[in-house]
Write a structure and sequence with these properties.
- The chain has 13 helices and six strands.
- A two-stranded antiparallel ribbon has the order 1-2. Strands 3-4 form a two-stranded antiparallel sheet. Strands 5-6 form a two-stranded antiparallel sheet.
- The chain is globular.
- InterPro entries: DUF6576 (IPR046483), Peptidase_S54_rhomboid_dom (IPR022764), Rhomboid-like_sf (IPR035952), Rhomboid_protease_S54 (IPR050925).
- It is a multi-pass membrane protein.
- Its main location: membrane.
- One of its GO terms (molecular function) is peptidase activity.
Amino acid sequence: MDIIENLRYKWRYGSMLIKLVFVNIAVFIILNVATLILSISGQPAQLALGLVEMPSQLPALLVRPWTVLSYMFSQYDFLHLLFNMVWLYWFGSIFLLADSSKNMCALYIYGGLGGAALFIASYAAMNMHGLLIGSSASVLAIVTATAIRQPGYKVGLLFLGEISLKWLAIITIVIDLLSMGGSNGGGHIAHLGGAITGAIYAIAQRKGINIAAPFNSMTDSIVNLWKRITAPRQPKANSSQSGGTFYHAGTATGTSGNKKPAAEADEASLDEILDKVKKSGYGALTAEEKKRLFDISRRIK
């Protein structure tokens, strides 16, 4: 139960980086469970993968348009998932030192779309057909943008010692270029599309242009609309009763008067719990404190 509560807490209060990692892991688990069930029932595993893989052919893509987004959150092989998530968490953490979670989410999507566009264009030019799956293009967009914005930032690597981000990005891109003739040539083409997108983002940021702004504005509008749709409707107050004006005695001094102290108490309690989490971790909370945390979060949602 503690594991589930920890996951719920990290999803609810974690950064966009944590949420992106969680989504990728969840899709990986769902895909593998689905293919296992299909295999047991004698059905081909490709039925499950076909729902998330993006085809290079435009007619097929028009039939499955959602795959333009689903492919960039999907991994079927564990090592593919592990490498992408380590890379994403590593560079994403550095990215957030100088940028926002919203911009990182936008760049993740942009990188995936950039990789998809180059993949489709390249396969069309070569008159070839293929399927694309994996978050590598999205991750490479964040890697490249981070390396361009903070080229001198050094990280320690096993056996190699400290190395600058710019060299990590350059080595990664060179490997993709050299791997285009291999069995996963289409995937490496998509990686380059993501890297190009990340470079465009970083260069635009240097010039004071935030290309993530349109995406952020769109997502804010969708979230606000969803909140308005799902928000509980407030009952209309009676304006009259028995032919005259009716005043609710508790409105001015009772009900409304108690809201502010209650809200202040919730805020103080929440601050106290979050301070304890920051110092000692979520596991240090007592059962009562965990319950209070979730109760307060529901009230202020």
